[in-house]
Write a structure and sequence with these properties.
The complex is a heterotrimer of chains A (514), B (312) and C (286). By secondary structure, chain A is α+β, with helices and mostly antiparallel strands. Helix content of chain A is 26%, strand content 23%. In chain A, the strands form five sheets. In chain A, strands 1, 8, 9, 10, 11, 12, 13, 17, 18, 19 and 20 form an eleven-stranded mixed beta sheet that branches. In chain A, strands 4-5-7-6 form a four-stranded antiparallel beta sheet, covered by helices on one side. Chain B has 312 residues and is mostly helical. With 286 residues, chain C is mostly helical. Chain C has ten helices and no strands. The two termini of chain C are 17 Å apart. The chains are: A alpha+beta (514), B mainly alpha (312), C mainly alpha (286). The interface between A and B is large, with 49 and 45 residues.
Amino acid sequence: MFKLRLAAHFVAATLTAVPLSFSTVQAETSLIVAVKRDRYSVAEDKFSFTTRRPAAQIVETAVKPDANFLPSPLLFEKWDYADGSYTVTLRQDVSFSDGTIFNADSAIDALKLYDQGKSDFLQIDQDSFEKLGDYQIRFRSEKGSALVIENMTHRGTSLFGPSEDRAANPVGTGPYLLDSYEPKQQITVVRNEQYWGETPSVDRLTFRFIGDDNARLLALQNGEIDVIGEVTPQMMLSIPQDGSVVLHESRPIRYVALLANLNGSAPFDIIQDYKVREALAWAIDRDTLAEVLFAGRGVPAKGILPGWMFNLGEDHTDGFGYDPQKTGALLDTAGWTVGDDGVREKDGRKLKLRLVAAYPNVSTVKPMPEMLEQMFASVGIDIDLVEVDDSGVYGSTYLDTGEADLYMEFASNNNTDPTYLLYNLFTSTTAWGGYKFTAPGPHVDEMLKSARSAQSREEVIDLVRQAHRAIVQDDLAAIPILMVPNFTLSRPGIEIPMSEYADWIDYGRVKFAK
Amino acid sequence: MVRFVLLRLLAAVPTLLGMSFVAFAIVALAPGDPVMMELRAMGIVPEPEDIAALRAQFGLDKPLLPRYFDWLSRAVRFDFGTSVATGRSVMSEIAIHLPATLALAVSSLAGAVIISIALGTFAVASDRFTGAGLRGLTILLVSIPSFWLALLLIYVFVLNLGWARLVGDGSASDLVLPALTLSLGAGASLGRVVFERVRAEKSEDYVRLAIAKGLGPLSIMLGHIAPRIIGPLTTAWANTFGALLGGAVIVESIFGWPGLGQLILQAIAQRDFPVIQAYLVFMGLIFFTTSLIADAVVILADPQLRRRLGHE
Amino acid sequence: MSEHALRIPALRLGLNGGRIGLILGLVLMAAFLALGLLPLVFDLPSPKQIDLLSRLSGPSSVHPLGADHLGRDVLSRLVAAVPVSLGAALVTMTVILAISLPWGIVAGLAGGRVDMVMMRLADIIMAFPTLVLALAVIGFMGASLEASIIGVAAAWWPSNARMVRALVLSASQRDFVHAAHLGGATRIRVVIRHILPQILPPLAVIISLETASVLLALSALSFLGIGVQPPTPEWGAMLNEARPFFAQAPHMLLAPGLAVTLAVLAFNLVGEGLRELLDKRQPFLW
C-alpha cells in the first residue's frame, strides 16, 4: 500500500515537473480567486454584470485611478474641461473584442448606454455628444460639474461595445474574454489575444463565489483556491503562522470610525455635546486595536481620508491620542460624574450610549465593537452594543430613524471623486437618507456643495480639506479610529499587484515565483 | 380517494391564499429597500428622480393591496417576477439552487430512514438494557445542534484526517458530510417515531393473539406490525423531507452547499423581495403537500375511514 | 419481579430505561442550576473582561476552559450564559403556551366553523420557516434577544396549539366531561375542573420536549449572529464567535457546544421519562 502511494506521488511529481522544465512560456497559467458573492446582474439596464471586480477584466473604463487616486489615461488619452464641457482625445489602435474599432462613433455609443441605467451617476447630458474628429469627442455635464472624468474611474462606468446580450456575450476592450459563467458558483475569463495593451501574466482567471468567511480561508489552506479577495479582521486573527498563507497589503485606505448622531432626539442626544464626543475620541487605545486586529498593519487614524489620497496631505487634521485621564476630565467638566456602579451620570441620567456596528457587515468589523465596549466601560461609559448583519435593518431601524448614538463604519472613499464620501455621509442633503443624522450642519453642507460645483481641481481639494477637518476634528461628526490597508491572502509563491481600490486589484498581472 | 384529494385541495385554497398574503405582506412591510441598498453597494449617488424611477420599476410605489393582487395574478401562473439582485427570473434562480437542495434532501432522507429503522428496530428487539441504551443514543443525537455537529465533522474529517474537501464543486463526494450531519439528527428523531409506534402496536391485542398462535417475532414484526406502522412512518418521512427541501439553512451555509437555504439567506440580506416571496410560497406548497400526504396515508391505512369515504 | 411491578403502575419501582432517563435529566437540570449559581460561591473573572495577552490560550489553571479570541475566560462566559440561554428558552416556552393554550382549548371546545378558522390560521403561520419569521420580527424590532424570542414563539405556537387542541378533543370525549355538561356545569368550570387536569400530564411531556427544541432553535439563531447582543455571553453566540478560530482553538467550540447539547438533552430526557411514566400500556413480550 505504502509503495503504491509512493509511486503515485512520484508520477504526480514528474507530471507537474515536466511542463515546468520544458518551457514556462507554453504552460497555461491559471489562478483561482475566491470572492464573497456573485454580484452580477443580467438585467439589461444594469451594468453591474462584468463591470464589477472579478470580470472587470473584460471591459475597461475611460480612465483609471493613479497612485494618488487622480484619473489617468486608459481609453481616454487626454481631456480638457471648461465651462461644463469636456473635450476628449481617445486612444487609437484599440478595438473591441468583436472587431469594432474604438473611435469617436463607438465611444459615443458606449457612453450613451449609460442613460439606459436609471441611476446614471455620470450625469452626462445625453444630447450634447459631438464628434470632433475620428478620435475626438465632446460632451457636457448635466450639472456643470467638473468631476465627471473623476467618476469614470468607477468600474461601473466601463465602456461596452455593441452586443445583442451584454450578459451572455459582453464585448469590451479589456485583456480578457468571458469563458464561462455558472451563476452563484464561478466565473472564468480567458486571455484576449488581441488585447491592445500589455499582455497579462495569467491565461485563465477563475473567480469562485464562497460566501462563508471561514470556508474561504479553509479552502485556501486546503489548496482548493489560490487567492482570497475579501479578507476580514477575524480571518487575519486566525491566519496560520506557518507560512502556508501569505498576506498582501496596499497602503492604508479604509477607515474605521464612529460616526456620531449629531441630530438625534432623546434618548439619543447625549452625544450632541462636543465634550462627550471628544472624551470618546481620547478613550480609544488605537495602538492596541491596530496591533491586535490587523496584525500591526492598521495605523491609528487622524481622519477618514488618508493623506496620500488626492494629495490631501497629513497636516490638515491633528487627530487624537489615547489619554483616559483627559477623557475623565472632559466628562467631569461636562457634568458626567462617576456613579456608584462605575457608570457616569448627570442629573440622574446614566451615560449610556448605543453603538451600532453593522457596516458593511458584522463579520468585517468583529471583534472591534467588543474591544471598544471595554475601553469605554473603563472610563465609565456604558455601551449598548448592537451588531446587525442585516444592512436593511441597519438602514431602516437604526440609521434612518437616528435611533443610536454611534455608528461604527468600516469603509472607504473608493472613488476618485474627492467629494464622494464626505458629501454622502456628512451633509443634510445626502441621497442616503439616514446620514443626515451625522451631518454637522450648514457650514459643512456649504463647503461640500461648493466643492461639488467648483470648477478646478485645486479648488475642490482645498474645500474637501476644510470639510474633512471640520468632520473629523472641529465638529467630530466622525471619531477616527484606524486606517487600514486593503488585504488579500494567497498561497505562497504568488505576488499580487495590490491596489487601494479593491476593484482595481489586477489579478491578471500577479507574478508567480519560479 | 380521488374525491378526497380534490376536496382537500379545494379546502386548501383559502389557507394558501392567506399564506400568500402573509408572505407578501411580511416582505413588503419589512424594513430595507432593495433599490437604495444596491445603489449604496455600487457606490452610486442617486438623484431623487432616479430613486423614484427605480422604485416605480419594481412596483414599490403602489399601495400594498393592488401590489398584492398584481403579484398574485402572476404568482398563480408561477411567474414570480425578476430577482432584483441578479436580473434573472425568480423561477430560474430557484432552478439554479433546487438541484443541490434536492440531492442533499434525498440523500439525507435516505440516510435518516436507514438510521431510524436500524435504531428503532434494534431498540425494540434487543434486551431491556441494550434497548434503553439505544434509545438513550437517539435522544442524545436529537439533542446535538446540527451546526455544532457540522463543525465537529469538519474538524475531524476535513482538518485532521483530510478525507473531504470543504468547498466542493457539488459532486457526489462533497455531499457526504452535509448529508451525514443532517441524517444523524433526522434519523434519530425518526428512530424515536419507529420505536414509539412499534411499542404502541405491541401493546395491542392482535399481537397477543399472534403470539398465542405461536408466530415468531420476525413474522409478527413483518406480517402484522410493519403494515400498521408504515402509515405514520410515511407521514414522518414526508414531514422530514419537506423540512429538508426548505433548505437546511445553517448546514448549507457551513458547508457552502449551494442550495435553497443559501438562496434565501442571500435574498434576505439583499432584500430581494420577489425571491423571498417565491420561497415562502414554495415552503407553503411543501407544507400542504406533506400534510395532504399525511392525511391520505392515515385514510389509506385505516379500513374504517376508507370505507366511510367510499360511501360518502 | 417485573410481573408484579407491571400490574400496579403506582408501584413500578423497577429501574427501567425511562426512569433512569428521567433521573438523569433531572440531575442534569440541577447541575445547570448549580452551574448558574457558581459565581455566588466562587470568584470567577468577569465574563466581559478582555485580556489580550491570553488570547486563544487553551485550558490552564488561570482559565480552566481556556480563553477566547479576546482573552475572555471561557468558563465564566459559559456560566454567565446559563441564565441567558436557559432563561430565553423558558421565556419563549411561556410565550408559546400563553398563545397556544387558549387557542387550542377554544378551538377544541368550540368545534365547527370556529375550530376550522382557528386551525387554518394556525396552518398559515405553521407553513413559514422559523428562520424567516424570526428574521422578519427582527426586521421590525431591531436586533435583540427579545426579538428572537418573539420570532421563535411566533413560528412555534401553531404546532403547539394543534397538540393542545388534540388533547382537549380527546379529553372532552370522556364520559364524565359529558356528564358534567349535562349536569349544567358552566364551560369555564368544565375546562378548569375536568379538562385541564386531564391534559396537564401529557402537556408536561410536550412542554419538556418542546423546550428542548426551542432551546435548539434559539441557539441556532444566535449562532447565525441573530439574537442576544455582544458582549453578553450566550452559548449559541459563543459558538458563533468561536467559529473563525476553531482550527487553532477548538476549546472555544467544545465547551459551549457541549453546554447546549447537555441542556437540550436534559429537557428531552425529562420529557421522555415523563412520557414513559404516564404510559400505562405494556407491550406483549414474546
